[in-house]
Specification:
With 252 residues, the protein is of the alpha/beta class. The protein contains seven helices and 17 strands. Helix 1 links the parallel strand 1 and strand 2. The two termini are 63 Å apart.
């Protein structure tokens, strides 16, 4: 499918509108002319209703200028090409982010270049928007809290790893202590979850405890060492695990 640019021609002179239309239809078949306008009211109406990609517009429209009309718009979402018999408006025209400035009578070669330029700008903008969308998707995936599934007698729980304070071993059972103070008992040993959670900031600090490092509030050195979790619970740290704990917590 051939992509097109939706175009509007604005000029208070009918012969000038017809000239641009003829040039576009003859040399720029990828441009679809969706409307024309000649005065303030018709211009405001057509710009708000038809949503063009590209607008060819004369600057002086009888007693008023197109700049007066453009200033009435809430926003300008289309590309503008100013077409005029006077080059004195060029600097003012570019203040409206015009992509080009054509002098009358318009030459076919210059018109084709303008249309090609518009397509290139649109393609570049789309490429940039796609990159931004890809980054947003990637960022969302990276920042989305990781989830794991754990199964107890009631069914399968889908839990966010960040919501787990720590896990407690009880033989072949493991109890998950959650930040909302709920407890989930699973019929698997702590070693199983140590392996499953090793990539989510969890560390075995004792034969009976697997803790979420994100929820440690305090490390105490007395009596061999312990950690205080965000719920106020103090958990012992075994001698064999202390070095790895200090390394993970960046304690020198």
């Amino acid at each position: 499918m051939i992509e097109t640019l939706k175009c509007i021609i604005i000029d208070d002179e009918q012969k000038d509108r017809e000239n641009i239309r003829m040039l576009l239809e003859s040399y720029c078949p990828q441009v679809e002319i969706i409307g024309e306008a000649r005065d303030r009211q018709s211009i405001l109406t057509i710009l708000s209703q038809l949503k063009p990609d590209l607008v060819f517009v004369d600057i002086q429209l009888g007693a008023i200028s197109i700049f007066d009309i453009l200033n009435e718009l809430d926003s300008i979402t289309f590309k503008i090409v100013f077409v005029t018999a006077f080059d004195k408006y060029a600097i003012q025209g570019y203040q409206y982010d015009a992509i080009d400035y054509l002098l009358k009578p318009v030459e076919a070669k210059r018109l084709v270049k303008v249309v090609d330029k518009t397509f290139r700008l649109r393609d570049r903008l789309r490429s940039e928007e796609n990159k931004i969308d890809e980054f947003k998707d990637l960022y969302a995936k990276v920042m989305e809290p990781a989830k794991i599934s754990i199964t107890d007698a009631k069914g399968v729980h889908m839990i966010k790893t960040i919501d787990v304070l720590y896990c407690v071993s009880d033989g072949n059972y493991t109890t998950f202590i959650m930040i909302d103070e709920t407890e989930i008992v699973i019929s698997k040993n702590l070693k199983h979850f140590e392996t499953k959670l090793k990539d989510y900031s969890f560390l075995r600090i004792h034969k009976s405890y697997l803790v979420n490092l994100n929820h440690i509030d305090f490390l105490a050195k007395e009596q061999g060492g312990s950690v205080v979790m965000k719920n106020g619970k103090s958990l012992p740290v075994s001698r064999n695990c202390k070095k790895e704990l200090y390394k993970k917590m960046n304690i020198l």
